[in-house]
Amino acid sequence: MAEPNSDSERGFDVASAQAGGVIKNGREILFQGFNWESKNNNWWEHLANKIPDLANSGFTSIWLPPPAQSLSPDGYLPQNLYCLDSCYGSNDQLRSLLGKLSEHKIRAMADVVINHRVGTTQGHGGVYNRYDGIPLPWDEHAVTSCSGGLGNKSTGENFDGVPNIDHTQSFVREDIAQWLIWLRKDVGFQDFRFDFAKGYSPEFVKEYVEKSKPMFSVGEYWDNCEYSPTDSSLNYNQDSHRQRIINWIDSTGGLCAAFDFTSKGILQEAVKGQMWRLQDVQGKPPGVMGWWPSRAVTFIDNHDTGSTQNHWPFPSEHIMEGYAYILTHPGIPTVFYDHFYDWGNSTHDQIARLMEIRRSQDIHSRSTIKIIEAQPELYSAIIEDKLCMKIGDGSWSPSGDEWKLATSGIRYAIWHK
Q: What does the subunit comment say (predicted)?
């Protein structure tokens, strides 16, 4: 059974939402400002030079890599949370970048890695599960019992090879909340992305969002899609997959959005001549976008699925079809650094044009959608009755003289009135 697809149906009063919830107007376009190799460059200064173009393109928030000192250069094995000197640049360079973003009215999103933390000294069991000599000098009781600590059992999935933080401890939650408040009020971040959100209960995310009050927050709840046991093909029905993400969002009190991994998984198969996947049995989009669009952060690839890791890549020859889909549809779309800056001027300009059309036609996260065609080689839809789009090899255009072609490319076209 389909979930309610509006905030009002779920009992959320959008108009009176407090800071610390999801963005109110839903007209945001996010930019992931790094890839897996960004750690090898002077990244904060590099990004600072991109800010005028990012602002002109219409991005509202830039997701930055983890800012804290880390055992791994990518930032995803944090140790000293209050040290902002990293492989991406110095504390001063980061703060300068955030200041320039603020000047251009672009919010900065911190990648918050609080599922695990690398210790400084050996404790119980000979494991590096103590944090002596650095801020937040926790002992083994801050580490879950299933990852070598003396704390309680984990409330989520275990992240192997490193001490997992025990969020059931009140002193841990208070320290994390104060760190998030510091990132907001002192460092200059406005938004948060919660890494490996499967590792701890979403009720803790709710508490952290309520206390630190980011302008926007999104969780990485990356779960496997449903595949056929006979031939390993993607199942048409992914309701159980998107329901798990919906449940996670619900358990944060609706205060945190989630990346729409369901839509990504379906879309990257659909563009291979399986466009029928893009309409569920009730005639709606088949991802989280179709059930709770204001909490669905759509994307094509990120530093894990694409880049040099390439764990679950979108087919490269269909990238623009992917962006034609997410930048015209409900949800909160995200553009990946590689596609915008490393794939050439043509891809950059095509994405920027799609963003311009989204803004000019006032398409937002809660926009209504009517799917017209969902055939193997053709998908088309009308959004808010003022924008029409098609992707795929199939030939199609809307009927009526009121529709004017806004832009087109290989296997995609957009019209507006």
A: Monomer.
- Token look-up 């990648």 returns 111
Distance of alpha carbon 335 from alpha carbon 59, whole angstroms:
9
Residue 140 lies in a domain: no
Query: Is residue 320 in a domain?
Result: yes
Phi-psi region of 283 (alpha: psi -120 to 50; beta: other; left: phi over 0): left
> What gap in Å lies between CA 66 and CA 77, rounded to an integer?
9
Q: What's the CATH number where 202 sits?
A: 3.20.20.80
| Domain total in the chain | 1
Q: Measure the N-to-C terminal CA separation of the chain; round to a whole number of Å.
A: 34
Could you read off the pLDDT of 15-25 as tens digits, one per residue? Answer: 434 444 445 57
Confirm whether 162 is domain-assigned.
no
Element at 407 (helix H, strand E): strand 404-409
Per-residue pLDDT, 7: 65
Residue 41: the pLDDT is 84
Question: Residues 6 or more apart from 375 whose CB is under 8 A from it?
Answer: 275, 276, 392, 394
Q: How far apart are alpha carbons 164 and 153 in whole angstroms?
A: 10
Whole-number Å distance between alpha carbons of 287 and 246: 10
Residue 318 Cα distances to 63, 147, 204, angstroms: 24, 41, 38
Q: Tokens 């959008």 identify what position? A: 14
Instruction: Give every residue of the chain whose pLDDT is below 70, as ranges.
Output: 1-24
pTM score over 0.85? yes
For residue 91, CA distances in Å to 41, 95, 120, 275 come to: 15, 6, 21, 47
Strands 387-391 and 191-194, bridge-based pairing: unpaired
Supply the pLDDT for residue 11: 52
Known catalytic residues are: 195, 220
What pLDDT, in 10s, does the model give residues 221-267?
999 999 999 999 999 999 999 999 999 999 999 999 999 999 999 99
Whether 129 maps to a domain, the answer reads no
pLDDT at position 24: 59
pLDDT for the residue numbered 299: 99
- What is the per-residue pLDDT for 3? 52
Q: How far apart are CA 205 and CA 331, in angstroms?
A: 21
AA identity, residue 230: T
Print the domain residue range for 84.
7-114+167-367
